[in-house]
């Protein structure tokens, strides 16, 4: 059985991946798992709130601590906790549109995570592959279509709702048992959604995501090349 590291900090122990023979589906996060786009979203928050220099550090800290959560939830937190007022629906929509405009061209040109393309090709027709992302649904579908990735996924699920709700709905809708599913994410919010629904989880531990996995009992990988042998060859022959 393949083994991967459990933490990027201090001495690293090894934790095995779930037995691939028992898996039938893989839930992929998108930013930082399929595309190397985490820094693009960082920069979008920085640019969007550049007029609040006194709050930028806390805005970026909150955004990074909650990778895998909707940008609209983060907007609400910024207005409530830092600006001391509520964010109305019209303002939120304007912020969302500006955010989408900031990231669009870069999302279409940024590289894929190492191993992502090879892994998706290896799993095609053998596993159910689905995207579960905090990116708004329309925006996510457009990016996947323009990046010509749609053929690899049987469903693409963006926000709303949140990932907990999406995981639960997918298990029911597709008739999957939690033990049959592996979720891959790069944020603690991804892990919590997987834990709540009972599915297996592996964390992508990258410098760009800045997540501390040292206290979380999950296997970690540097990129998707580390899953290729384990999942890609699991049903050969």
Structural overview:
The chain has 237 residues and is of the alpha/beta class. The protein folds into two domains: 3-37 and 112-232, Rossmann fold, CATH 3.40.50; 38-109. It is built from nine helices and eight strands. It has a six-stranded parallel beta sheet. Helix 8 links the parallel strand 6 and strand 7. The radius of gyration is 18 Å and the shape is globular. It starts with a strand and ends in a 5-residue tail after the last helix. 38% of the residues are buried. The model is unreliable at 6-14 (pLDDT under 50).
Short key terms for the protein model shown above:
single chain, alpha/beta, Rossmann fold
Biggest sheet, strands in spatial order?
5-4-3-6-7-8
The counted number of beta strands is 8
Helix content: 40-55%
Write down the Rg: 18 Å
Mean pLDDT comes to 90
Separation, N- and C-terminal Cα atoms: 18 Å
CATH topology of the largest domain: Rossmann fold
Low-pLDDT residue spans? 6-14
Identify the CATH homologous superfamily of the largest domain: HAD superfamily/HAD-like
Q: Looking at the structure, what is the overall shape?
A: globular
CATH architecture of the largest domain: 3-Layer(aba) Sandwich
Structural class comes to: alpha/beta
CATH class identity of the largest domain: Alpha Beta
| Series of secondary-structure elements, N-terminal to C-terminal | EEEHHHHHEHEHEHEEH
Q: What is the count of distinct domains? A: 2
Query: Main sheet, how many strands, which sense, barrel?
Result: 6 strands, parallel
Strand residue percentage: 15-25%
Count every helix, treating DSSP H or I runs of 4 or more residues as helices: 9
């Amino acid at each position: 059985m393949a083994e991967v590291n459990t933490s990027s900090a201090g001495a690293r122990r090894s934790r095995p991946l779930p037995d691939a023979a028992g898996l039938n589906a893989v839930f992929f996060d998108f930013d930082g798992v399929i595309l190397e786009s985490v820094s693009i979203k960082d920069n979008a928050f920085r640019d969007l709130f550049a007029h609040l220099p006194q709050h930028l550090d806390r805005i970026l800290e909150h955004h990074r601590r909650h990778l895998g959560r909707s940008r609209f939830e983060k907007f609400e937190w910024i207005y409530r906790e830092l600006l001391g007022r509520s964010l109305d629906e019209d303002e939120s929509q304007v912020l969302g549109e500006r955010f989408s405009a900031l990231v669009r061209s870069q999302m279409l040109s940024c590289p894929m995570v190492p191993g992502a393309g090879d892994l998706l090709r290896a799993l095609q027709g053998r596993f159910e592959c689905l995207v579960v992302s905090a990116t708004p649904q329309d925006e996510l579908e457009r990016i996947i279509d323009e990046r010509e990735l749609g053929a690899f996924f049987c469903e693409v699920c963006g926000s709303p709702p949140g990932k907990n709700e999406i995981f639960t709905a997918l298990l029911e809708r597709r008739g999957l048992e939690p033990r049959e599913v592996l979720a891959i994410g790069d944020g603690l919010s991804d892990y919590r959604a997987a834990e709540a629904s009972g599915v297996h989880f592996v964390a992508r531990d990258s410098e760009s995501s800045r997540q501390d996995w040292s206290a979380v009992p999950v296997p970690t990988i540097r990129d998707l090349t580390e899953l290729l042998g384990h999942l890609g060859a699991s049903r050969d022959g």
